Amino acid sequence: MMHIVTNTHISSRSWAVIVWVLTRTAFLLFVFEVVRFPGQYIANDVSSIYHGWYGVLRGGTFPLHDVTWQYPPGAALVVLSPGLLPFLGYSAAFFWLAFLADAVVLGVLLRDSAVRRSGRLAAVWVWVGGVTLLGPIVYARYDVMVTAVGVLALLRFPRRPRAAGLLAGFGAMLKVWPLLLLIGAPRGRSTRRSWLTAAATMAVLALAFHLAMPGSMSFLTFQRERGTEVESLGAMVFHLGRHLGWHGTVRMNYGSMEFLGPHVHLVSTAAMALSVLAFGWLLLWRLRARTFTVATPYDAAFAALLVFTTTSRVISPQYMVWLIGIGAVCVTLRESVMRRPVALVLAATLFTTLEFPVFFSDVVASDKLGVALLLVRNGLLVLASLSACRRLWAATVPRRAARGLPERGMPAARDDRTSVLTSTSR
C-alpha cells in the first residue's frame, strides 16, 4: 500500500513539472515572438524601457529625469542583470532570467518541507496554474524575480527569521511590497530578529546606492505624482463616467495609461486614503491578534499584500504574480485560512489576462466589454480582500479582544506545530 501511495505522489509531482515545462515553453515562444500572443504587445517594457535604463545605469547614475523610473534603487540590480549573459541580447537574457526565477519558485515549493511531508501539491498547482492564467507577461516584467525573493523570504520565516528579514529587506529594495511579508511575525524574538534584519538590510543597501550612484531616491517624486491608472479600482469611476457624460482622456502618463481630466486628482487621493485605512486595519489587527498558528505569518502576508494591491492607484497585470506566489505559500499548509481568497485571486488572474493584453484596447476606450472585464476582475479582488481580512481576523483575534474587553485566560488550544512555532519565537 505504501508503495502505491509513493508512486502516486511521484506521478503527481511529475505531472506538475510536465505542465510547467509545456506552459513555460509556450511563454518563451510568445516573448521571443515565434508565436504572437493576442492583443497588446507585451515585450516593449523589456526591449525599450528596461534596455534604455540599462544604458543609463551602466553609466553610473540612476535615470534622474525619466518619470517612468519609479522603483527603489535595488531595481537597478535587476535591470542590469542581463549583463550577466553577455552572449545574449538584452531582451533574450532578460527572458531567460525571468524563466529561471519562475523555475526557482517551482523548485522551492516542490522541496518545501510541508509539501513533502503531506504529499499535497496544491501550492505547486497554484503557482503552475496561476502563472499560466496570467500568461507570458510574467516573463516580460521583472515582478517574477521579486516574487521569487518574496517566496523564499516567507518560506524561510518559521525557522530562520533573520534570513527571512534579510530577503524581505532585499526584496523591498527591489519593489517595496516584500516588506509586507513580515506583518504576521509572531510576537517576541522572531519579530525582533526579522524586522531588525530587514531594516538593517534596507539601510545598508540604501546607503550603498546613495554613495555609489546619484539619484537613488528620485523614484519617490515620480511615484508620488502618479495618477489613476485605467485598470485600477478607482478607474471604474471614470470608465462608467464616460458613459454618463464625464469628459476626460486616457493618455500614457508616468509610465502607464492613466485617466486625465476633472476629478481625477480627487479619486487618486481617495485611493491613497483607502490604502492608509488598510494600513490602519492591519495595525489594529496586529495589536489585537493573539492566536498565532504556524500559518499566520503566511496568511497575514497574503492579506496585507492583497489589500494594498486592490486599493492601489495602479493595478498593473504583472502585480498578480505577487499574489499568486504568496498565495501558493499559504496553501502549503493545511492550517491556512486563505484558500477561498487564493481561489478568488486565481479567478481574477484569468480576467486580468483578458483585460490585458487581449482586450486592452476595449479597456482604454471604456467599451462595454472592457468595462465588464474590469468590473469582474476588480470585483473579485475586492471580494478576495474582504474575505482574507475577515478570515485572518477570525482566526487570530479572540472574541473578547475584538470587543475591546480584557481577556480571560489563554487563547484556544493550539496544535503541536503551533506550539513549536510559538516556543521558538520567544
List keywords for this structure.
globular, UCP010361, disordered C terminus, 426 residues, mainly alpha, 2% strand, 65% helix
Q: Secondary-structure map with pairings?
A:
Blueprint: H1 2-31, H2 44-58, H3 75-80, H4 90-111, H5 113-118, H6 122-134, H7 143-156, H8 161-175, H9 189-212, H10 219-224, H11 236-241, E1 249-253, E2 256-260, H12 264-288, H13 296-310, H14 320-331, H15 339-358, H16 360-364, H17 368-396, H18 399-402, H19 416-424
Antiparallel strand pairs: 1-2
Helix pairs in contact: 1-4, 1-6, 4-6, 4-7, 6-14, 6-15, 7-8, 7-14, 8-9, 13-14, 13-17, 14-15, 15-17
Please characterize this protein's 3D structure.
- This protein is an all-alpha fold.
- The protein has one domain.
- 65% of the residues lie in helices and 2% in strands.
- The protein has 19 helices and two strands.
- It has helices at residues 2-31, 44-58, 75-80, 90-111, 113-118, 122-134, 143-156, 161-175, 189-212, 219-224, 236-241, 264-288, 296-310, 320-331, 339-358, 360-364, 368-396, 399-402, 416-424; strands spanning 249-253, 256-260.
- It has a two-stranded antiparallel sheet.
- The chain is globular, with a radius of gyration of 22 Å.
- The chain crosses the membrane at residues 12-32, 87-110, 122-142, 162-183, 195-213, 264-284, 291-309, 315-333, 342-360, 372-393.
Structural class designation: mainly alpha
SS element count, helices: 19
Write out the strand line-up for the largest beta sheet, numbering strands in chain order.
1-2
Would you report the number of β strands? 2
Transmembrane segments: 12-32, 87-110, 122-142, 162-183, 195-213, 264-284, 291-309, 315-333, 342-360, 372-393
Membrane topology: Multi-pass membrane protein
Protein name: DUF2029 domain-containing protein
InterPro entries: GT87, UCP010361
